[in-house]
């Protein structure tokens, strides 16, 4: 996870927000871009958005993103490549050939995706990711 984007001020995240700095760091890392100048901290995350976050945060890759993986994720869908990368890495298997990209991701679903992603990482990858996240949040 490398910083790639200039800092953006979100209209709905005041400077005194509890997670102001952390939100800025994940935005700069390209994990979250906001919608119409807002971060929308109380909005739900879709399964497509979750796919993007996991792929970018964990530096996942695949060479097989040039075909449709799920019938409800056409190649023109903005998150097609992210979802295909999750599938190629065994992180998502779909449900009867569908991914449901616009559905809200539940905590249970996110936990399953994250568990599958992390169990496939090698130790050196794990350490690199932990180091990146420690730079985001100094807890």
From TrEMBL:
Keywords: Signal. The keyword Chaperone does not apply. This is S-layer homology domain-containing protein. It holds the Pfam family SLH. Residues 6-64, 66-128 form the SLH domain.
């Amino acid at each position: 996870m490398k910083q790639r984007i200039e800092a953006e001020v979100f209209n709905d995240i005041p400077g005194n927000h509890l997670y102001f700095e952390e939100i800025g760091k994940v935005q700069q890392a390209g994990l979250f871009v906001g919608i119409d100048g807002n971060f929308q901290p109380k909005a739900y995350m879709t399964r497509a958005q979750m796919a993007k976050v996991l792929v970018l945060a964990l530096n996942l890759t695949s060479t097989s993103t040039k075909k449709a993986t799920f019938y409800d994720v056409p190649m023109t869908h903005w998150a097609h490549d992210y979802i295909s990368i999750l599938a190629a890495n065994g992180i998502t298997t779909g449900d009867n050939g569908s991914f449901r990209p616009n559905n809200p991701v539940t905590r249970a679903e996110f936990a399953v995706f994250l568990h599958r992603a992390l169990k496939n990482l090698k130790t050196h990858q794990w350490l690199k990711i932990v180091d990146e996240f420690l730079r985001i949040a100094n807890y």
